[in-house]
Amino acid sequence: MLNLKLSHNPLIQYRPIRTSDLEVLEKIHGDLFPIRYESEFFQNVVNGRDIVSWGAVDRNRPNGQSDELIGFVTARTVLAKDSDIEEFLRYDSSRSEQTLIYILTLGVANSYRNLGIASSLIREAIKYASNIPTCQAVYLHVISYNNPAIYLYKKMSFQCVRRLSAFYFINGQHYDAYLFIYYVNGGRSPCSPFFQLEDLLERRLSKSAFANSWTTIFPRELIKLLVTSAKSGFKMVAAKLWRKEDRKPSKWSKCKESGSLLPTKHNKRMSTEGAVSQFV
């Protein structure tokens, strides 16, 4: 559907952000976000220094602006052990290379809203994360009053796992933030009932007297196969339960009103100077 703010039919395409995008990138950030970003941040984005990014352009945009940014997402790879969401991961301390993708900023020019551009940009970040074998999740923060962004992440199956009190400090005022996580490559929360059940099953079967006694008759590979088969059965049951749960009324309002699914452990206050945070 044609956006009423546009006088033409847009043709949206996506590409990496380049050095030539610097001026427009700074302008859109300034127009959309209440936080002022330092020039170093933008230089890192356009030059790809520890930041990956994707830009949206409108190939049908007139007046020679067909390659000018109208939307963007920026992200950074972080080590899971160095992140502040380790407690929400099935973290294996023996695998120090486990990583995460943290979305820094996401924005779409006002005249190009409601065209699915933000969703497509997020999918680019998720696809990127999914292609990194060591990556377990994509995560981000969103200010508590940004209802359109909250709705978008919920719609895209991000999980709201915590409300962070006074996370942002903008123009002399504190604002809460929600922490959202999207698991990839088999990553999931260690506090989920499914993870606890699977972990208990594996430990019980592999360490039980039954398993130890039968290893004299059957090879340990067979015991592992039994564990895997049992886990697969539980996964099928869990999948059915999840599908059934999806048909129930949303519990998002509970998360939104209670403020947190888990107790807040860390507060991170963001100032208006040099802050790196996520808004839409």
TrEMBL record:
Chain spans, region Disordered: 251-280
EC number from the UniProt entry: 2.3.1.259, 2.3.1.48
UniProt keyword rRNA-binding present: no
CDD domains cross-referenced by the UniProt entry: NAT_SF
Keyword annotations: Acyltransferase, Chromatin regulator, Chromosome partition, Transferase
GO BP annotation list: chromosome segregation
Annotated ranges, domain N-acetyltransferase: 12-185
Entry-linked InterPro entries: Acyl_CoA_acyltransferase (IPR016181), GNAT_dom (IPR000182), NAA60-like (IPR045141)
Domain of life: Eukaryota
Reaction(s) catalysed (UniProt annotation): L-lysyl-[protein] + acetyl-CoA = N(6)-acetyl-L-lysyl-[protein] + CoA + H(+); N-terminal L-methionyl-[transmembrane protein] + acetyl-CoA = N-terminal N(alpha)-acetyl-L-methionyl-[transmembrane protein] + CoA + H(+)
GO CC aspect terms: Golgi membrane
MF annotations from Gene Ontology: histone acetyltransferase activity; protein N-terminal-methionine acetyltransferase activity
Keyword Transferase: yes
Similarity remark: Belongs to the acetyltransferase family. NAA60 subfamily.
Entry protein name: N-alpha-acetyltransferase 60
Organism from which the protein derives: Anisodus acutangulus
Phylogenetic placement of the source organism: Eukaryota, Viridiplantae, Streptophyta, Embryophyta, Tracheophyta
